[in-house]
Structures are given as structure tokens and as C-alpha cells.
């Protein structure tokens, strides 16, 4: 496999809509391919690889530099599941942009690449690797039903003994009224957790 190309679904400059960096200007790199296959996923178009465009790392870096000149504060590598691919070479080249590099992952694969911020969105049907849970800066659990809250509690127990525990977020599934109520009630009663909303969808931005 050519290490100088990656399957890219899309790249775009917008605002981070979720988690600790909500509202900040960011350049997004969405990679193709995902075997986690969450039923509620809002980017299912990113799952297949064969129909996607393979692009050079130099081309991606050029776009990141342009986005920086236009105001992007950091880079977000997302998917799909980006760690299905080795990100070492991509991160090495993106470092030339001087922008912080963020990763959004479910944590099912080994960590590759060097990041300034890691957002782990673990899934209970495919739990994350402990190495990524220990390395991440924030955990974002998607809430649809009560079982998801039990999973969130299991994450809390795992991170209790970490020297530098991650920030903890619950995010209701989009347009899931039950998920909203569960998440709000849980965060109200558990001060270590924060509420994350998909603000970009509320605002109608990409």
C-alpha cells in the first residue's frame, strides 16, 4: 500500500460542533472506511473505501495550510474510523502547517500518529483499546438508551485511577428525545460529566 496516499471522503473548513472545542474554527479531514458500523451513524457514506478518492498527503497538507491562512485554529482527522489507516505519515506532514492536530476515533485500532488532542467516542458493541483510553483527552459517549449510561459508568470506573483523566462528555443521539432526557438527567446528577450537543446541526453548518 502506498503510504503517501489515503482514501479521503471530504475535507472542509468549518466549526467544531461537539465536545471540548465546540465553536472553534477547524479544518476537517474525513477518512473513508469503518468496520464499527454504528446503526445511528450520521456519516454512513464514509464507510466504504472502494468508491472514495485516494489523495496524496501533500495535497491534503496544502489544503490544511490554506485553511490555516483562512482562520482554522486546528486540524481534525475523523472518519469513518481514521485509525483503520496508519496516520504516522499524515501527521508528520501536517506538522508543517504548525496547526494542532486533533483525532476523533472509536478507539478500536492501535494508535498511530502524533496528536495534540484525542477525542475518544467509544462504542459499547466494540469497546476501545485501553491504550487509547489512557491517551485520550476527552471521552464522548453517545446516548440513546439506558444501556448507554451503564457503559458510560464503566468508562468512569476505568478512568478513576488515571493520573490525567480525560474530560467526560455525554452526547445525545441526534433527534433522540429519550437520549436527550437521559443525558441531561445523568449530567445533572454526575458533576464529572459534561453535556455535548451537535451544535453544527442546530446551526445548520457543515
UniProtKB/TrEMBL annotation:
Q: Which UniProt keywords apply?
A: 4Fe-4S, Iron, Iron-sulfur, Lyase, Magnesium, Metal-binding, Plastid, S-adenosyl-L-methionine
Query: Does the record's keyword annotation contain Iron-sulfur?
Result: yes
Against InterPro entries, the record matches this protein to: 7-CO-7-deazaguanine_synth-like, Aldolase_TIM, rSAM, rSAM_sf
Q: Which residues belong to any copy of the Radical SAM core domain? A: 21-206
- GO molecular function, one example? lyase activity
Give the matching Gene3D superfamilies: Aldolase class I
Could you identify this protein by its name? Answer: Queuosine Biosynthesis QueE Radical SAM
GN (gene name): MYN1_Chr_331
